[in-house]
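Bit of a strange request maybe. I'm writing a small parser for structure token strings and I need a real example to test against, not something I typed by hand. Could someone generate the tokens for this chain?
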Amino acid sequence: MTADHDHLADAATAPSAWNLPNALTVVRIALVPLFVWLLAYDGGDQTGWRLGAWAAFSVAILTDRVDGELARRRNLVTDFGKVADPIADKALIGAALVTLSVLGELPWWVTVVILARELGITALRFVVIRHGVMPASSGGKIKTVLQATAIGLYLLPLQEWFGTWATTVAWWVMLAAVAVTVATGVAYVYAALHLRRHSARTARKKAQRQSGT
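Reply from user aminoacidic:
Good idea to test on real output. This should exercise your parser:
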């Protein structure tokens, strides 16, 4: 009876999924097809449409920053947000990379490496969830900033405005994003292995084996 009462009390005090941070997450997801359409329009050669794609991408990135801060400050973290927020992030970054590669502006190997890392670490989080949650690292945050910055530079008509040196800068920023993406991916793998070896669940199983139960 007490457990049922506690469960009902927790449900009553849990924040509703209908809140501003989740609404911003939904907006970010909705911006993805608009962003792709603006970027790919007429082969991506029209300056006005490119600027529109950059604006849509920038707004989407801004909502990613704002919704997380609001959810934490106002205690509005929900199960929906935990699932939808990373999906929105990966959909936006993935759509940007794939579209740029389809347009021939970004080598496919860059897109494959980044997406393989993002999807692989997401799968790894689910694999080790029984042992605990892997928190976002400071390196992961730097990775996200570099990815967003590099993509933002690629979206702008830099060569038209400033010449080839500007596109070279964009390429080096993208390479830095790839390097940090791979490095943080390796760090997450080590963190997952450490978590699995030293979790309470593993300790219980080891104790059970030693006791012969």
